[in-house]
Amino acid sequence: MAEIIIDTYLCSGCETCAEMCPDVFRMDEATEKAALVSVSPQITDAVRQAAAFCPEKCIEILE
């Protein structure tokens, strides 16, 4: 089963992932960092693209 890991230490809170793929990524209001909408989202091309466009490269997809 694939898994998405967000390194919140590296996350700058730019919101790129949440804008590109709002079904999977959201911004945590308390930390102002990226978070997952659900625990085990489906890995789609949109998810891969959002991870690729992350300027901090803090999103990792484990398959």
UniProtKB/TrEMBL annotation:
Presence of the UniProt keyword Coiled coil in the record: no
Domain 4Fe-4S ferredoxin-type: 2-30
One Pfam family it belongs to: Fer4_13
UniProt superkingdom: Bacteria
Electron transport listed as a keyword: yes
Coiled coil (UniProt feature): none
Record protein name field: Ferredoxin
Species of provenance: Candidatus Electrothrix communis
Organism lineage string: Bacteria, Pseudomonadati, Thermodesulfobacteriota, Desulfobulbia, Desulfobulbales
